[in-house]
Amino acid sequence: MKYQFYTIVFASLMTSCGVNHNITTEPVTTDENSIKANTVTKSENEQAPNNTAIPVSKIKPQPQFEPITKSQDSKKIVKTDAEWKAILTPAEYQILRQKGTERAFTGKFDKHYKEGTYTCKGCGTALFDSTTKYDSGCGWPAFFKAKENTIAETIDRSYGMIRTEITCKKCDGHLGHIFDDGPNPTGVRYCVNSASMGFIPADKDKQAKPAQKK
Ligand SMILES: [Zn+2]
């Protein structure tokens, strides 16, 4: 119960865009299962509530991450932690595999507006076209649209907030969060960590397709 109070206070200190992971306290819970909720598969009884409308005070004890979209792709990329560590930098690993967040305004793609395709850093899946990127001013790369059927959404109750986490459908890599304050025509903002993405410039994109590791 005490934790609940702290999480509410904590939530009120947060910005809408993300969480600064340099904060060392983990006020929400000490339950390991919810901290390492890496799996985005499972359970049929997930009638996910609307993510924005729930007052924090009404949160009942429940898993921090709860699937919204079903990921039934049988060709998932599954690797061990050691395998991920071998192909990702420490920062990429922390964000993609441990749901971290890079500091605002520090990512290499925050002010990057070249033509091309943004891919998943974990598996190479093409996620966003540069034509859907815009300057939201929030400090992270923002897109109003993702490529079809590439991103899974999950309710994220960490840090006493209710947000919608976005992950790569293929490798379950954490990308960031989606908010409903985006521009037309979609009205949504995919707020993505630069470290979660790679980039293929438009001219190269025509010659070679993104590498798809198995
Ligand atoms: Zn991926």
Description of the molecule:
This protein has one domain (2-37, 62-207): Metal Binding Protein, Guanine Nucleotide Exchange Factor, Chain A. Helix content is 17%, strand content 20%. It is built from five helices and ten strands. The strands form two sheets. The protein has a seven-stranded antiparallel beta sheet with strand order 1-6-7-8-9-5-4, with no helix packed on it. Strand 6 (151-156) and strand 7 form a beta hairpin. The model is unreliable at 5-51 (pLDDT under 50). Bound molecules: zinc ion. Residues 120, 122-123, 125, 168, 170-171, 173 line the site of zinc ion. Zinc ion is lined by residues 120, 122-123, 125, 168, 170-171, 173.
